Amino acid sequence: MFVISNFLIAIAKILDIALTLYMWIIIARAVISWVNPDPYNAIVRFLNSATEPVLYPIRRRLPLFFGGVDFSPVIVIMIIIFLQTFLVQTLIQLAQRLV
């Protein structure tokens, strides 16, 4: 059983790192959007292509009552924090109970 436990812990850690990395990509996209970035820059294109599939559905459903401010990155970051708190911790606790 310890092999399955170690496997679940490894998956939880990788998921936690991936979620943290994606959260920083979302933050970088939000900061870059405050200035007028060059749309042909490789970094700007990467940030747009990595975040737009997640941000667009939220942006489409979110009303723009807030003076045109885009709150979709904030919502995605809250979802990431929820997944880190709930899913990753659940996997770790499940793995600890298997030992």
Identify low-pLDDT runs: none
- Give the SSE string: HHH
- Helix count equals 3
Q: Any idea how many domains?
A: 1
Coarse shape: elongated
Helix fraction bin: over 70%
**Largest sheet, if any?**
none
* Number of strand elements: 0
- Using only CA atoms, what is the Rg? 17 Å
The rounded distance between the terminal residues' Cα atoms is 6 Å
Beta percentage is under 5%
Oligomer category: single chain
Name the average pLDDT: 92
Could you give the topology of this structure?
Blueprint: H1 2-32, H2 42-61, H3 72-98
Helix pairs in contact: 1-2, 1-3, 2-3
Describe the structure.
The structure is a single chain. The protein is mainly alpha-helical. It is built from 3 helices and no strands. The longest helix is centred in the first third of the chain and has 31 residues. The mean pLDDT is 92.
List key phrases describing it.
elongated; mainly alpha
Brief characterization of the structure:
The chain has 99 residues and is mainly alpha-helical. Helices cover 79% and strands 0% of the residues.
